[in-house]
Amino acid sequence: MEGFISGNDGEIKGLKDLKASLGDVDDFLNNNNAPSSSHDDDSKSPETTPPSAPLPPAAATTTTTTTSSASASSSDLSYFKAPTFIPDLISPAVSFRSLCRSSTHTGPTNGKCPGFLQCNLVVLRKEDAFDFLLFCQRNSKSCPIVDVCENGSFNPTGITKSSDLRTDLPAYNVYSNGKLVQGNLSDVRSLWPTDGVAFLLGCSFTFDHVLIANRISARHIEMKRNVSMYRTNLKCREAGRFKGNVVVTMRPVKGGDVAKVVTLSCKYPEAHGAPIHIGSPEDLGITDLSKPDWGDPVEVREGEVPVFHACGVTSQEVIMSSGVSFAITHSPGCMFVSDKIID
Amino acid sequence: MEGFISGNDGEIKGLKDLKASLGDVDDFLNNNNAPSSSHDDDSKSPETTPPSAPLPPAAATTTTTTTSSASASSSDLSYFKAPTFIPDLISPAVSFRSLCRSSTHTGPTNGKCPGFLQCNLVVLRKEDAFDFLLFCQRNSKSCPIVDVCENGSFNPTGITKSSDLRTDLPAYNVYSNGKLVQGNLSDVRSLWPTDGVAFLLGCSFTFDHVLIANRISARHIEMKRNVSMYRTNLKCREAGRFKGNVVVTMRPVKGGDVAKVVTLSCKYPEAHGAPIHIGSPEDLGITDLSKPDWGDPVEVREGEVPVFHACGVTSQEVIMSSGVSFAITHSPGCMFVSDKIID
């Protein structure tokens, strides 16, 4: 069954397992394919709004920054390898974004919408856009670009049929002069710069359900926690003003499963691909696994090895290290769920 | 044996076949590993200068646009996954660039330095750099970025230990307001903009020796001609002012070898990867294979199927279609040979 035709890799991508796209990981494990819009909200945010009082749909949102490209949908796309978004197949992602838009879901997205590409968000002023795009190109293991919006647009037409990046994530951070000035906002419509350029970078949550389907534990999902993230001592390749260190996620994996995690995750280069380090956290400058720099600590059990994947929060570490004048990002772990079906 | 550690894909890359890096394809086929600096020049350009009168080495070239990054060599590189260029392994590429620098080699590079990544060159003014970088990111099948120099620099430190993009290609084109105004220049030092941004895009010549090693004919190399290139009716995804159609190369392949060409070339995504079309040139809007838009025609024999790979000359088609104010590029088929060893 054909789900999504990718823009760049020349392969027609199918849908390996339709079940995997029709619910969250609990559903997936239980073979219970209830629509994702009926999921319980596991967020603890005080900003949660009842589902009965949603915001208007993104397409009807009033804004002064709408551009022609902002309203483009896949029906307008006629370029070579333009994606095709089939409504029946993308409905779990569309429904989940609707829950985020209404602030019904305001927490981490690990385990949500398995089978869909999840993304980090970075929004910068136009003046910083070239250097950041080059930074991502040079550090694609940490910052794999999956789409970039036209200047001023908030609808990434390469990975969704229709969405609004200003409302469709569970939670946002705002940085000013390299400092986090606001965290866990549920709506950034009033802050979005008129010349803002939005970058979407793949996230390793994208392949968690593949690990689970192969009987490899995803501890952060089991424990209903955010994944553990750490700043490392590995320097990124600089680009213009952008510099900083690689951030990693950590998953505890049984020794007998480590090779399987490598061979499975390397199939998803848009979601960081293979791990960059296995075992010996001290080599990365990580002194205490129980004290992550972002996210929650998770239990590392006897016989388990810490497996480190590059993480898109590298972009936020770099925004801070580089003293960037203004940036909007997702809140770590609270990703943008796209319509792009992975296989 | 470890040759080159790639910057982005997280894999330590080895050197599959050292022989393949030590000569040109004729040597490779004949198991004669003479240093490439002794190769006969097959160029017909009147600009050819005797090897006895070379230009000074790139590092000693006098220039007013040198920046600190322009003189960076791999010994300065300390970032995560920074490449390591081992002098004994990269010497064929270094020698070949020296032949280009002295205008001893001024023709196509197909068959030269097998085992090394060959690249298209595009140099633009800073004002066009973001849109073009985004264009490449959106059309990575045609324009796979392998390195981008710092503003004003002409030394791509991600793929060479030391080089000068203004002299180290066999031949250059210059475009003004979307029109080709000068072709087959052997040196563009006097034309390089002080704010120029140089982009290197992978080329399918990179994997020709792999096809040959698998007993698949590379007709353009057999016939000592440039590859055939055609403008297609496939639209690229636009980015800012950049728009245009996909350009393809064509290789005639026996029916029994077509699948092998797919499975072999797909291993080289930085060099366009798998073909984008096989057979039926009319589907691409190509009416006469014997009249390529760039390069030379090659014989298509009974029982052979035309196999089309995306081509980096897409970037030159796009420069023309978009009316870009100023650009320097390689002359089609006359590529930049990098120090990056593929495996």
UniProtKB/TrEMBL annotation, chains A, B:
It holds the Pfam family D-Glu_cyclase. Keywords: Lyase. Gene3D superfamilies: PSTPO5379-like, PSTPO5379-like domain. InterPro entries: D-Glu_cyclase (IPR009906), Putative_hydro-lyase (IPR038021). Residues 24-73 are annotated as: Disordered. GO terms for biological process: glutamate metabolic process. Signal peptide: none annotated. One of its GO terms (molecular function) is D-glutamate cyclase activity. Residues 48-57 have a biased composition (Pro residues). Residues 58-73 have a biased composition (Low complexity). NCBIfam families: PRK05463.1 (NF003969). This is Uncharacterized protein. It comes from Triparma columacea.
